[in-house]
Amino acid sequence: DAMVIQNPRYQVTQFGKPVTLSCSQTLNHNVMYWYQQKSSQAPKLLFHYYDKDFNNEADTPDNFQSRRPNTSFCFLDIRSPGLGDAAMYLCATSGRERARGTDTQYFGPGTRLTVL
Amino acid sequence: DAKTTQPNSMESNEEEPVHLPCNHSTISGTDYIHWYRQLPSQGPEYVIHGLTSNVNNRMASLAIAEDRKSSTLILHRATLRDAAVYYCILRDVGWAAGNKLTFGGGTRVLVKP
User: Fold this and answer.
1) Chain A residues with CB inside 8 Å of B87's CB?
2) Distances in Å between the alpha carbon of A56 and those of A25, A46, A69, B43, B100?
3) Cβ(B73)–Cβ(B82) under 8 Å?
4) Which pLDDT tens digit goes with each residue over B7-51?
5) A76 to chain B, closest Cα gap in Å
6) I need a labelling partner for B27 at 20 to 30 A (CA). Which of A12, A16, A95, B88 fits?
Protein backbone atom coordinates (compact mmCIF):
# COMPACT_ATOMS: atom_id res chain seq x y z
CA ASP A 1 0.00 0.00 0.00
CA ALA A 2 1.14 3.52 -0.75
CA MET A 3 1.97 5.24 2.47
CA VAL A 4 3.99 7.67 4.54
CA ILE A 5 6.76 6.07 6.54
CA GLN A 6 8.63 7.60 9.43
CA ASN A 7 11.78 6.27 10.98
CA PRO A 8 12.50 5.73 13.71
CA ARG A 9 9.22 5.54 15.59
CA TYR A 10 10.97 6.40 18.82
CA GLN A 11 14.12 8.48 19.13
CA VAL A 12 16.05 9.36 22.25
CA THR A 13 18.68 12.06 22.14
CA GLN A 14 20.69 14.06 24.60
CA PHE A 15 20.28 17.71 25.33
CA GLY A 16 22.16 19.64 22.66
CA LYS A 17 23.01 16.62 20.50
CA PRO A 18 21.86 17.01 16.88
CA VAL A 19 19.22 14.59 15.74
CA THR A 20 17.65 13.80 12.36
CA LEU A 21 14.22 12.35 11.78
CA SER A 22 13.30 10.87 8.43
CA CYS A 23 10.17 10.55 6.36
CA SER A 24 9.56 8.75 3.09
CA GLN A 25 6.49 8.44 0.95
CA THR A 26 5.33 6.18 -1.85
CA LEU A 27 2.42 8.42 -2.85
CA ASN A 28 4.50 10.54 -5.25
CA HIS A 29 3.03 13.65 -3.66
CA ASN A 30 4.68 16.98 -4.33
CA VAL A 31 4.03 18.56 -0.94
CA MET A 32 5.59 17.30 2.28
CA TYR A 33 4.97 18.73 5.75
CA TRP A 34 6.48 18.48 9.20
CA TYR A 35 4.26 18.99 12.22
CA GLN A 36 5.21 19.06 15.89
CA GLN A 37 2.76 17.70 18.44
CA LYS A 38 3.52 18.16 22.11
CA SER A 39 1.80 16.13 24.77
CA SER A 40 -1.97 16.74 24.95
CA GLN A 41 -1.77 19.41 22.24
CA ALA A 42 -2.85 19.58 18.62
CA PRO A 43 -0.31 19.22 15.81
CA LYS A 44 1.41 22.43 14.78
CA LEU A 45 2.99 22.98 11.38
CA LEU A 46 6.74 23.66 11.42
CA PHE A 47 7.39 23.93 7.68
CA HIS A 48 6.62 22.31 4.37
CA TYR A 49 8.09 21.69 0.94
CA TYR A 50 6.12 22.44 -2.17
CA ASP A 51 8.18 20.46 -4.63
CA LYS A 52 11.68 21.79 -3.86
CA ASP A 53 10.48 25.08 -2.45
CA PHE A 54 10.92 25.30 1.31
CA ASN A 55 8.29 27.22 3.29
CA ASN A 56 9.00 27.97 6.92
CA GLU A 57 6.30 28.95 9.39
CA ALA A 58 6.99 32.34 10.97
CA ASP A 59 7.21 30.99 14.51
CA THR A 60 9.34 27.92 13.81
CA PRO A 61 12.60 28.20 15.78
CA ASP A 62 15.87 28.37 13.86
CA ASN A 63 16.90 25.22 15.66
CA PHE A 64 14.69 23.27 13.26
CA GLN A 65 15.83 22.67 9.71
CA SER A 66 14.66 20.45 6.90
CA ARG A 67 16.01 18.82 3.76
CA ARG A 68 14.24 17.23 0.84
CA PRO A 69 16.76 15.52 -1.44
CA ASN A 70 14.09 14.07 -3.74
CA THR A 71 10.33 13.66 -4.06
CA SER A 72 10.19 10.63 -1.81
CA PHE A 73 12.27 11.69 1.17
CA CYS A 74 12.22 14.53 3.65
CA PHE A 75 14.30 15.03 6.79
CA LEU A 76 13.83 17.05 9.94
CA ASP A 77 17.05 18.19 11.59
CA ILE A 78 17.10 19.53 15.12
CA ARG A 79 20.47 21.17 15.57
CA SER A 80 20.56 21.48 19.35
CA PRO A 81 17.57 19.79 20.96
CA GLY A 82 16.30 21.24 24.18
CA LEU A 83 13.99 19.67 26.73
CA GLY A 84 11.14 21.66 25.22
CA ASP A 85 11.61 19.94 21.87
CA ALA A 86 10.42 16.62 23.22
CA ALA A 87 7.34 15.86 21.17
CA MET A 88 5.79 13.71 18.48
CA TYR A 89 6.97 14.77 15.03
CA LEU A 90 4.54 14.06 12.25
CA CYS A 91 5.29 13.96 8.56
CA ALA A 92 2.48 14.44 6.06
CA THR A 93 2.06 14.64 2.30
CA SER A 94 -0.47 15.99 -0.14
CA GLY A 95 -0.77 16.07 -3.89
CA ARG A 96 -1.73 18.97 -6.12
CA GLU A 97 -4.09 16.97 -8.29
CA ARG A 98 -7.06 17.73 -6.07
CA ALA A 99 -9.15 20.86 -6.33
CA ARG A 100 -8.07 23.77 -4.20
CA GLY A 101 -9.11 23.58 -0.58
CA THR A 102 -10.08 19.93 -0.86
CA ASP A 103 -6.76 18.12 -0.92
CA THR A 104 -6.22 15.44 1.67
CA GLN A 105 -3.12 15.23 3.81
CA TYR A 106 -1.74 11.80 4.55
CA PHE A 107 0.13 11.47 7.79
CA GLY A 108 2.79 9.07 8.89
CA PRO A 109 2.67 7.38 12.31
CA GLY A 110 5.05 9.94 13.79
CA THR A 111 8.39 9.82 15.59
CA ARG A 112 8.29 10.36 19.32
CA LEU A 113 11.38 12.29 20.39
CA THR A 114 12.68 12.16 23.93
CA VAL A 115 15.38 14.58 25.03
CA LEU A 116 17.42 13.61 28.07
CA ASP B 1 -7.69 29.84 8.45
CA ALA B 2 -10.81 30.73 10.40
CA LYS B 3 -11.20 29.35 13.92
CA THR B 4 -13.39 26.50 15.03
CA THR B 5 -14.83 25.62 18.43
CA GLN B 6 -15.44 22.05 19.55
CA PRO B 7 -16.34 20.44 22.88
CA ASN B 8 -13.33 19.04 24.67
CA SER B 9 -14.74 15.54 25.02
CA MET B 10 -17.73 13.33 24.37
CA GLU B 11 -18.72 9.84 25.44
CA SER B 12 -20.71 7.31 23.53
CA ASN B 13 -21.78 3.71 23.86
CA GLU B 14 -20.62 1.18 21.34
CA GLU B 15 -22.99 0.65 18.40
CA GLU B 16 -24.71 3.99 19.04
CA PRO B 17 -24.43 7.12 16.87
CA VAL B 18 -22.11 9.95 17.82
CA HIS B 19 -22.80 13.55 16.86
CA LEU B 20 -19.76 15.81 17.07
CA PRO B 21 -20.55 19.53 16.80
CA CYS B 22 -18.25 22.21 15.46
CA ASN B 23 -18.91 25.95 15.52
CA HIS B 24 -17.26 28.15 12.92
CA SER B 25 -19.17 31.41 13.09
CA THR B 26 -16.49 33.36 11.17
CA ILE B 27 -16.37 30.98 8.23
CA SER B 28 -15.94 32.64 4.86
CA GLY B 29 -17.67 31.69 1.66
CA THR B 30 -14.52 30.05 0.33
CA ASP B 31 -13.77 27.86 3.38
CA TYR B 32 -14.15 24.12 3.14
CA ILE B 33 -14.97 22.22 6.34
CA HIS B 34 -12.61 19.30 6.92
CA TRP B 35 -12.58 16.67 9.62
CA TYR B 36 -9.58 14.64 10.64
CA ARG B 37 -9.21 12.22 13.50
CA GLN B 38 -6.22 11.01 15.43
CA LEU B 39 -6.27 7.57 16.95
CA PRO B 40 -4.04 6.96 19.98
CA SER B 41 -0.34 6.90 19.10
CA GLN B 42 -1.01 7.48 15.41
CA GLY B 43 -0.90 10.36 12.97
CA PRO B 44 -4.10 12.16 12.04
CA GLU B 45 -6.22 10.70 9.26
CA TYR B 46 -8.73 12.32 6.95
CA VAL B 47 -12.38 11.65 7.68
CA ILE B 48 -14.55 13.85 5.47
CA HIS B 49 -14.95 17.33 4.06
CA GLY B 50 -17.69 19.52 2.62
CA LEU B 51 -18.54 23.01 1.47
CA THR B 52 -22.29 23.59 1.60
CA SER B 53 -24.15 20.32 1.12
CA ASN B 54 -24.26 17.38 3.49
CA VAL B 55 -21.73 14.68 2.66
CA ASN B 56 -21.55 10.95 3.29
CA ASN B 57 -18.70 8.49 2.97
CA ARG B 58 -17.84 5.10 4.37
CA MET B 59 -16.48 6.57 7.59
CA ALA B 60 -18.99 9.24 8.53
CA SER B 61 -21.53 11.85 7.51
CA LEU B 62 -21.11 15.60 7.61
CA ALA B 63 -24.13 17.78 8.20
CA ILE B 64 -23.58 21.48 7.43
CA ALA B 65 -25.93 24.16 8.72
CA GLU B 66 -27.65 26.28 6.12
CA ASP B 67 -25.77 29.40 7.24
CA ARG B 68 -22.54 27.34 7.40
CA LYS B 69 -21.73 28.69 10.86
CA SER B 70 -21.76 25.21 12.31
CA SER B 71 -21.44 21.60 11.25
CA THR B 72 -21.82 18.15 12.78
CA LEU B 73 -19.79 15.05 12.15
CA ILE B 74 -21.90 11.94 12.54
CA LEU B 75 -20.48 8.52 13.27
CA HIS B 76 -23.45 6.27 12.64
CA ARG B 77 -22.46 3.31 14.77
CA ALA B 78 -19.53 3.95 17.03
CA THR B 79 -17.06 1.14 17.57
CA LEU B 80 -14.19 0.94 20.02
CA ARG B 81 -11.87 1.73 17.10
CA ASP B 82 -13.54 5.11 16.71
CA ALA B 83 -12.11 6.31 20.02
CA ALA B 84 -9.93 9.22 18.93
CA VAL B 85 -9.53 12.99 18.91
CA TYR B 86 -11.63 14.51 16.14
CA TYR B 87 -10.54 17.81 14.62
CA CYS B 88 -12.75 20.20 12.70
CA ILE B 89 -10.64 22.38 10.39
CA LEU B 90 -11.49 25.14 7.92
CA ARG B 91 -9.47 25.38 4.71
CA ASP B 92 -9.68 28.18 2.18
CA VAL B 93 -10.24 27.29 -1.42
CA GLY B 94 -7.29 29.44 -2.40
CA TRP B 95 -4.10 27.55 -2.96
CA ALA B 96 -2.12 29.13 -0.15
CA ALA B 97 1.40 27.77 -0.07
CA GLY B 98 1.18 24.20 1.10
CA ASN B 99 -2.48 24.54 1.99
CA LYS B 100 -1.63 23.80 5.61
CA LEU B 101 -3.92 22.33 8.23
CA THR B 102 -4.43 24.51 11.30
CA PHE B 103 -5.56 22.19 14.07
CA GLY B 104 -7.71 23.44 16.92
CA GLY B 105 -8.37 21.72 20.22
CA GLY B 106 -10.45 18.87 18.86
CA THR B 107 -12.96 16.63 20.62
CA ARG B 108 -11.77 13.52 22.41
CA VAL B 109 -14.32 10.75 21.83
CA LEU B 110 -14.56 7.92 24.32
CA VAL B 111 -16.51 4.85 23.24
CA LYS B 112 -17.76 2.60 26.01
CA PRO B 113 -18.39 -1.09 25.40
Assistant:
1) 42
2) 21, 7, 17, 21, 11
3) no
4) 999 999 999 999 999 999 999 888 889 999 999 999 999 999 999
5) 16
6) A95
